[in-house]
Design goal:
- This protein is mainly α.
- It has twelve helices and no strands.
- It has two domains: 2-102 and 159-237, Up-down Bundle (Vanadium-containing Chloroperoxidase, domain 1); 114-156, no CATH class.
Length: 254
């Protein structure tokens, strides 16, 4: 358990570099960023937003199955644990959001520029919030159409970031489960992707840096437990003898 915690903590540390740096720098979100850059960030965030998030989840589950090569019974248990880690994380996120009730940055901006009190905004039902955002931004040409639509869809509270918890959980699962198999390319790609998702949440006006930090820490705790459960019930994470030669050849070819 300790070795798993150390491994996933190292991954969490890498993920925390960006949001902690932004937090300490005092950076604050403002609309009017370069549209092309925002569009790229939007598509990164969409890899986690429903329904695309389900597709991402299925693809990653399939890849983890292939990398770990457990037998059928262990593979079913692996799927259950992976799905459980993600779903429990989203449940914790929703529970915390309803109790902290932190407004999103774009909602604070609406209060300052369109005189929509934050308290009144969040007393509305979700559909009414969406309609209000649409109405207020109809003539706001400085806000790209895709971002207006995203705001209309995401009118909930900010703290912590559910998108970050999804992406960070998968990145840390890669660190926890795939590092013993030396799947370093997969780990690197998922860490970069998770950092990109986190950055997109800041640049799209959806979250504050602290939302990302806390979401990453929650993900780390859940993933550490999930990785231990996989090792306990699915089998050792270290490769069997027949895979070691393959790993050695893969490492040699890099």
């Amino acid at each position: 358990m300790l070795s798993i915690a150390k491994r996933t903590a190292a991954g969490a540390g890498l993920l925390l570099i960006m949001p902690v740096t932004v937090w300490v720098s005092g950076w604050s979100w403002q609309p009017g960023q370069d549209t092309g850059w925002l569009k790229a960030m939007y598509w990164i965030t969409e890899t986690v937003t429903q329904p695309w998030g389900i597709i991402t989840h299925v693809i990653l589950c399939g890849w983890f199955f292939w990398c770990l090569r457990f037998r059928l019974k262990a593979a079913v248990m692996l799927f259950t644990i992976l799905a459980g880690a993600i779903l429990i994380g989203q449940g914790v996120k929703s529970w915390v959001k309803e109790r902290v009730q932190e407004p999103r940055p774009f909602v604070i901006w609406l209060e300052k520029t369109h005189h929509i009190p934050v308290d009144e905004f969040y007393t509305l039902k979700r559909k009414d919030r969406s309609d209000l955002v649409k109405e207020q931004l109809t003539t706001q040409q400085a806000i790209p159409h895709f971002l207006r639509q995203h705001w209309q869809k995401e009118t909930g509270f900010a703290f912590p970031s559910g998108h970050t918890m999804f992406a960070a959980s998968w990145a840390l699962l890669a660190v926890g489960l795939l590092w013993p198999r030396r799947r370093t390319v997969t780990i690197a790609i998922l860490l970069v992707w998770a950092t990109g998702v986190m950055g997109s949440r800041l640049l799209l006006g959806m979250h504050w840096p602290r939302d990302l930090v806390v979401a990453t820490l929650i993900s780390w705790a859940l993933v550490t437990l999930a990785t231990w459960l996989v090792q306990r019930f699915c089998g050792p994470l270290t490769p069997p003898p027949e895979e070691r030669q393959e790993i050695a050849e893969r490492e040699q070819n890099r």
